[in-house]
Amino acid sequence: MRVVPSADVASDAVIGEGSSIWHLAQVREGARLGRNCIVGRGAYVGSGVVMGDNCKVQNYALVYEPASLGDGVFIGPAVVLTNDTYPRAINPDGSLKSAHDWEPVGVTIRTGASIGARSTCVAPVTIGAWATVAAGAVVVKDVPDFALVAGVPARRIGWVGQAGLPLLALDEGRWRCPATERTYIETDGILSEEDA
Question: Per-residue pLDDT tens for 18-71?
Fold first, then answer.
């Protein structure tokens, strides 16, 4: 494990073997990072956030609690995972909101998914396994496994395989990854591996 001196890591945060926390990053109380994770410069990992093994949180990304990241998740530079469905600084009576005045909700990101630079995932949403969120997208609805989504609000514009490349259409409802040669079947807007 490598934690550079300028990083701020809570004493009760659990950092897995082989993980690196870089300059000016903050990892809050109760966060649990798996093995071989990277938290880039200026990134924020909130209290109680759970990250699987081999995750990358790039520079200046904000992963607010109670987010949950599966194994091999990529969080691009300046990504924001929100945690407040109805954000307000004050209560209706004008008093400043405290931590007790709202209930945080999290973003869930499944195995192998990638969230592109400067995109925002508005909690509570789930990003499916191996999905890709394009740079600058704003995700307000759940994203299925293997989906490629883009835009504001994000919409599915294609499918990707585990290698991250767009899948090629073979025939009606069948797709192939140009990198791995794996084939997939689309049924009612859901993609699954044909060989599985």
Answer: 999 999 999 999 999 999 999 999 999 999 999 999 999 999 999 999 999 999
Q: Tell whether the torsion through CA atoms of 79, 145, 67 and 71 is positive or negative.
A: negative
Cβ neighbours around 36 below 10 Å, total: 17
Residue 82 class from Cβ within 10 Å (0-12 exposed, 13-18 middle, 19+ buried)? buried
8-17 pLDDT per residue, tens: 999 999 999 9
**What is the model's pTM?**
0.94
User: Can you list the domains of the chain with their CATH numbers?
Assistant: 2-86+104-160 (2.160.10.10), 168-196 (no CATH)
